[in-house]
C-alpha cells in the first residue's frame, strides 16, 4: 500500500494539438516579445516539464498528503519537498513567464499554462509555494521602487527566498475591506506592521532562506474599507541594504490548519508585530494603493487556480482511464446473462464509457478555455505598440474569460474527480489510488482567490458591461462566426446547431441583466450570477470543443487510418458531440430559469430555514 | 482545535411534520402489527434518539475520523466506540424494527428511518457496525433453520455479537458471480470455507465478543455465476451448540483499508480458512440460494444507504445554516459600497440564501422520498392478510422507489456537503468544522451496496416493467391526481404546473424505454439509465415537496403568525417553489436528451480516449 509511486499522467499529444493546431501558437512564435521562442524550444520545455512532473513532483504527491508539521515556530515541509524546490528553480520552471530583463525566459503564456498544468497536476500542494512566490515577485516587479526590485526580485525569482500573499484576517475573508492590520510609519521610512493574517498558503516553510510576505495593512489615519489599504513587503527575516539577513522581523507562525486536502501546502496563521518589531516596506512608496496592486496578483492567481483545477481534473481523468482499461469485471452487454462469457475491461461498459467521455470532454474543454484566455494574452502582448486597438480587444477577452477560468475550472475539477472515483468503484475511495486525494485537494479551488460566487459577480456586474459591452459582443460575435461557418458540417452540424441555441440563450441573459441594471433590479444579479457563469462557461467550452473538432477532422483527412493521430483526431469529434448533446442542450432551459429569477431565496424568512 | 465537540443537529419539528402531517403515521398506529405504538411512543423514541445522537454518537464522529488500528490481527475501534455500542444496545435503538417474537419493538418503518437518520447523521461510521449486524441477523431470521436462529439471533440482536455481509472479492465487485470462495461439506454437516473477501465493513472490531459473517461461497460442483452461490454463517470464533465460544474459526484480518472517509468503520480484507479450519453453517440448509437470501439484506441495506446519505446531508445543512447565522461578513446589498455600513450575517447574502435553500429543499425532498418508501412498507404490513391487493400495491411502490432512495440520496449527500463547505468558505475546508468530514464520509454512499449505475439499471430494466408496468403507472397516477387537485393552488400553482410537465416528461421516457425493449435496442438503456434515475428522482422529490407545502399552507391557516409553526410551514412553501423553479424546470429538456440517446460513448474507439 505504498503511496510513493508516481501516478501523474499527461497526454502530450493533446498539449501539442491545443498549442499548435487549435490556438495557433506558431502565429506569435518568433515575434516580439517572443523572439527567442520557436517550436523546438516549446517542445523541449514541455518534455522537460513532463519529466519533472512525473519523476520529481508526482512521487511526492501522496507523501505531501501526510501534511506539514509546525516545530518550534518553524514549518517543516514533507520529505522531499526541499529537494524538489531546489530542482524546480535550477531547471528554470519558475521563471518561464518572467521577463528577460529580470532573468526569466519570457515564454508565451500558453506554454507556461501547459507547464503549470503538469506541475500542479502532479503535485498541487507543492506547486503552490513557488506559484505564490512568483506572484509576489511579480507585484514587486510591477509596482516596487527601484531599490525594492534590487533587494527582493532576483532572490525571489531564483528560489533563494519564498513569497506569500497576506490578505485574509479572521474577520475579513471575502470582505477584505474589514482588514484591521495596521502600519505605522517609522523614522527610517519603513512601517511598523501589526496584525494577524490567516489562511496564508506557504506562510512559512523550510525550503527557502527567507519568506517575503506581501501584506495588506491600513496606515494610521487611512479611510475604512478597501480604499484605505496599502501593500507592504514584510520579510520573515530582516534584510539589510545588501540583501543580508539580520535577524527576526517579528513574524510568528501561530498555527497551521488541518485541512481536507492540499496538505503538503502549509496554511498558516501569521502574527505580525506581536513584539512591536515587525517592519514593512511600502510597495512603490505609494500609500492606499494596496488593493489595486494586489489585484494584479489576484488576476493572475485566479487564472492559476483555474489551471490547478484543470491540472487535477486531467490527472484524475487519465488515471481513471488507465484503471478502466486494466480492470476486468463483468461481461459485455450482449452476454450479460451468461456467467461463462469472458470478462471484459470495464471500459467496455456503457456507463463507464459515458463517465470517461464526460471527463474527457470537460477536461479538454476547460483546457481549451484556459488556453483561449492565455492565447488572447499572448496575442495582446505581441500586438502592443503595433496594433494597440487589437491589443486592447484581446485583453478584453482575457478580462471577460478570467472569472470563467477560475470558477468553472475549479467546479469542474471537483466534478471530474468525483466521476473518477466512481469509475474506480470501491478502490477509488481508498488511498491505494490517487483519485480520492485529487478530489480532496480540488475542493479548495472553488473557495480561495475569491469564491466562485464572487467570480460570478465580477462576470455579471463588471465584465459583461466592460468597454460598453464590447468584450461580450466580440465574444458572442466570434461564436456566431463559427456557427455560420460550420452549421452544415457533416459530422458536427447538429452539435453546432445546439451551440447556436445555447449561445443565443446566454446572449438573451446578458440583455436581461442589462435590463435589470437599467431598472434598478440589482438584487436579481447575485441571485442568478452563479448559474449564469455556469452556462456561459458551458457555451464557451462547447464552442471550443467544436472548434477543436472541426480542426481535428480537417487534419484527420491528411493522415492514414493507422497513424496514431487518426484516433486522436477521432476523439475530438466525440468530445464535442457528447458535450453538445449532453450539456449544451440543457442551456436554453437554464437560461429561462435565470431570466425568470425566482425570488424564493429572498422571500424565505430567516426563521423559516429550520426550527433549530 | 478540539474536534471532540458535538456538532450534530436535527430539526425535530421537521421529523414530526413528515411523520404525522405528511405521511399520516396516525393511520397505522395502533393497528397490527403496530398495536403497541401510539403517538406518545413515537415521540419518546425520537426524543431518545436525538439525545443519544447528540450526546453519545455526535462527539465521537471526529474522534472516529482518526481511524481504526489493526493490532496483532485484531481491529481496535476508536476510543469511545465500545461504550457507545453498549449503550446503543442497552437503550434498544438497534431492535426498533425487529419483530416482537425476536425481542424487538416492532416499530413502524418510518419511525425507524427517522431514528436511523439521527444515528447515522451524528456518526455515519459508527452506525455501520450495528446496522450491518442487524442486517445479518435479519437474514438469519428470514432464512435460517430453527437451530441457527436459536444459536445466533438473540446475541446478534442484543449486541453481544456483531455481524457482517461478505460478498466482494478482489476480482468480484459489482460482478458478484465471479466469486471464487469455496465451501466443502464436512462430515458433521458444516462446510469448510476457503477464500478471501474484501471491503468488509466492520469485518473485525473489539466491541462484541464474536462476529458473525454472512459469507457467499460456492459449494464444490455448483454452477458458475450468481446462481451457484450459497450463503453461510461463518463466526469469527467457533460456537458450540449452547452458544459458547470454543476457539478460533480461522478467519483472519489481512489488512484494513485507508480511506477517504468513514474512517471509524473498519473496512477489512478477510481470509477465511487459510489453515483449513474455517467452518460455516449453510443458511437454512438450502444450497444455491445465496443470492436470493443475500438480496433480502441488500434491499434493506440499499434503503439504509439512502438514509445515510440523507443523514449526513441533513447534518451538513443544519451546521451550514448555523454558521451562516453566526458569521458576519460584508454589508447588505443596498449598502455594498459603503465601508461604514454595518456588517451582516452571511445568511443575509443572496447566494448564501440560495445555497441554504437549495440544501434545505434537497434534504427535505430526500427525506420525503425515503419516508414515502417507508410509509408504503408500513402500509403494506398493516394491510397484509386484510387487503392483500393493497399490500401488494404498496410493496410495488417500495420496490420502485428503492433504487431512487439508494442512488439519489447518496448523490445528493455529496452535493449538499459540497454546498455546505462553500457556505462556510475557507473554514469549511478545515477540520475545525464538521462539513469536510461529512463530504468525505458521503462519497462512498454512491458506490457500496450496488453502485448508483447498478441502481439505475435495476430501475429501468426491472422496476419500470414490474407487474406489467403497474407500479410505474400507479406512481405516475398518484402524481397526476395531485396535479389535478392543486394546479390552481394560490401559492403553488405555477410550481405544480412545472411538476406536471416534468412528470409528463418522465412518463415519455418510460414509453421510450419500452419501445427500446420491444425493438431490441437494449444497449441504449445503460447509456441513459443513470440520467433517468436522476430526473425521476427529481420529479418524485418535486412532487413530495409540493405535497408537503400544500399540507403546510393548509395547516398554517390554523395557527397565529407568532406561533413557531407559522414560520416552519412558510419554509415548506419556499422549499417546494424553489425546487420546482430551479430543478423541475430542467427536467423536460433532460428527458429529451435521454430519449435522443446520443451514442458517442459507444462510438468513440477505445484508442481515441487518449494517446497515453
Give a written overview of the molecule:
2 copies of one chain form a homodimer. The first copy, chain A, has 612 residues and is of the alpha+beta class. Chain A has a domain of 145 residues. Chain A is 54% helix and 11% strand. Chain A has 18 helices and 12 strands. In chain A, the strands form 3 sheets. The first copy, chain A, has a 5-stranded mixed barrel with strand order 4-5-12-7-6. In chain A, helix 14 runs parallel beside helix 17. The longest helix of chain A is centred in the middle third of the chain and has 37 residues. The mean pLDDT of chain A is 96. The interface between A and B is large, with 109 and 110 residues.
Tell me the Rg of chain A in angstroms.
25 Å
For the record, give the distance between the C-alpha atoms at the N and C termini of chain A, rounded to a whole number: 44 Å
Helix amount of chain A: 40-55%
Sheet bearing the most strands of chain A, described?
5 strands, mixed, barrel
How many E-type strands of chain A?
12
Structural class by helix and strand composition of chain A: alpha+beta
Biggest chain-to-chain interface with counts? A-B, 109 and 110 residues
Percent of sequence in beta strands of chain A: 5-15%
Gross morphology of chain A: globular
Spatial order of the strands forming the largest sheet of chain A: 4-5-12-7-6
Mean pLDDT of chain A, nearest integer? 96
Order of helices and strands of chain A: HHHEEHHHHEEEEEEEEEEHHHHHHHHHHH
Low-confidence stretches of chain A: none
Total of DSSP H or I helical runs spanning 4+ residues of chain A: 18
Oligomer description: homodimer
Amino acid at each position: 500500500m505504498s503511496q510513493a509511486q508516481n501516478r501523474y499522467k499527461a497526454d502530450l499529444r493533446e498539449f501539442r494539438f491545443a498549442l499548435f493546431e487549435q490556438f495557433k501558437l506558431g502565429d506569435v512564435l518568433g515575434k516580439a516579445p517572443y523572439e527567442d521562442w520557436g517550436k523546438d524550444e516549446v517542445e523541449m520545455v514541455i518534455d522537460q516539464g513532463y519529466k519533472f512532473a512525473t519523476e520529481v513532483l508526482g512521487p511526492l504527491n501522496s507523501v505531501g498528503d501526510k501534511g506539514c508539521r509546525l516545530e518550534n515556530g518553524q514549518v517543516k515541509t514533507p520529505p522531499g519537498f526541499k529537494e524538489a524546490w531546489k530542482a524546480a528553480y535550477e531547471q528554470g520552471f519558475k521563471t518561464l513567464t518572467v521577463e528577460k530583463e529580470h532573468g526569466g525566459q519570457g515564454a508565451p503564456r500558453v506554454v507556461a499554462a501547459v507547464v503549470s498544468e503538469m506541475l500542479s497536476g502532479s503535485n498541487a500542494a507543492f506547486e503552490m509555494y513557488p506559484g505564490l512566490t512568483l506572484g509576489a515577485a511579480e507585484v514587486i516587479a510591477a509596482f516596487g521602487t527601484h531599490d525594492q526590485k534590487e533587494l527582493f526580485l532576483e532572490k525571489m525569482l531564483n528560489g533563494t527566498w519564498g513569497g506569500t500573499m497576506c490578505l485574509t484576517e479572521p474577520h475579513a475573508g471575502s470582505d477584505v475591506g474589514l482588514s484591521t492590520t495596521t502600519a505605522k510609519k517609522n523614522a527610517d521610512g519603513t512601517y511598523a506592521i501589526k496584525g494577524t493574517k490567516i489562511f496564508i498558503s506557504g506562510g512559512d516553510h523550510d525550503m527557502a532562506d527567507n519568506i517575503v510576505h506581501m501584506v495588506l495593512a491600513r496606515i494610521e489615519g487611512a479611510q475604512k474599507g478597501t480604499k484605505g489599504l496599502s501593500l507592504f513587503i514584510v520579510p520573515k527575516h530582516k534584510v539589510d541594504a545588501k540583501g543580508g539577513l539580520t535577524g527576526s522581523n517579528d513574524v510568528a507562525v501561530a498555527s497551521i490548519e488541518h485541512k481536507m486536502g492540499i496538505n503538503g501546502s502549509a496554511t498558516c496563521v501569521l502574527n505580525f508585530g506581536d513584539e512591536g518589531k515587525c517592519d514593512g516596506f511600502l510597495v512603490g512608496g505609494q500609500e492606499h494603493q494596496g488593493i489595486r496592486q494586489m489585484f494584479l496578483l489576484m488576476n493572475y492567481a485566479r487564472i492559476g487556480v483555474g489551471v490547478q483545477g484543470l491540472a487535477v481534473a486531467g490527472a484524475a481523468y487519465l488515471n481513471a482511464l488507465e484503471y478502466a482499461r486494466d480492470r476486468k469485471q463483468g461481461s459485455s452487454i450482449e452476454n450479460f446473462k451468461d456467467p461463462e462469457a469472458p470478462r471484459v475491461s470495464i471500459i467496455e461498459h456503457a456507463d463507464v464509457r459515458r463517465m470517461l467521455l464526460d471527463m474527457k470532454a470537460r477536461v479538454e474543454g476547460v483546457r481549451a478555455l484556459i488556453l483561449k484566455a492565455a492565447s488572447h494574452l499572448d496575442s495582446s502582448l505581441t500586438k502592443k505598440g503595433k496594433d494597440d486597438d487589437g491589443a486592447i480587444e484581446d485583453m478584453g477577452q482575457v478580462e471577460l474569460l478570467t472569472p470563467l477560468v477560475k470558477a468553472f475550472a475549479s467546479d469542474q475539477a471537483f466534478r471530474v474527480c468525483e466521476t473518477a472515483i466512481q469509475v474506480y468503484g470501491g478502490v477509488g475511495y481508498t488511498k491505494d489510488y490517487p483519485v480520492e486525494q485529487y478530489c480532496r485537494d480540488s475542493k479548495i479551488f472553488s473557495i480561495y482567490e475569491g469564491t466562485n460566487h464572487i467570480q460570478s459577480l465580477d462576470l455579471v456586474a463588471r465584465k459583461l458591461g466592460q468597454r460598453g459591452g464590447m468584450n461580450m459582443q466580440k465574444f458572442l460575435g466570434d461564436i456566431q462566426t463559427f456557427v455560420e461557418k460550420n452549421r452544415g458540417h457533416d459530422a458536427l452540424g447538429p452539435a453546432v446547431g445546439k451551440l447556436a441555441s445555447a449561445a443565443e440563450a446566454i446572449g438573451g441573459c446578458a440583455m436581461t441583466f442589462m435590463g435589470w441594471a437599467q431598472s434598478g433590479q440589482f438584487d436579481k444579479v447575485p441571485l442568478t450570477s452563479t448559474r449564469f457563469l455556469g452556462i456561459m462557461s458551458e457555451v464557451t467550452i462547447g464552442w471550443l470543443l467544436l472548434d477543436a473538432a472541426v480542426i481535428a477532422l480537417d487534419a484527420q483527412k491528411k493522415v492514414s487510418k493507422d497513424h496514431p493521430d487518426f484516433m486522436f483526431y477521432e476523439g475530438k469529434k466525440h468530445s464535442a458531440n457528447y458535450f453538445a448533446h449532453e450539456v449544451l442542450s440543457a442551456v436554453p432551459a437554464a437560461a429561462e430559469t435565470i431570466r425568470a429569477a425566482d425570488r424564493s431565496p429572498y422571500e424565505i424568512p430567516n426563521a423559516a430555514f429550520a426550527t433549530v
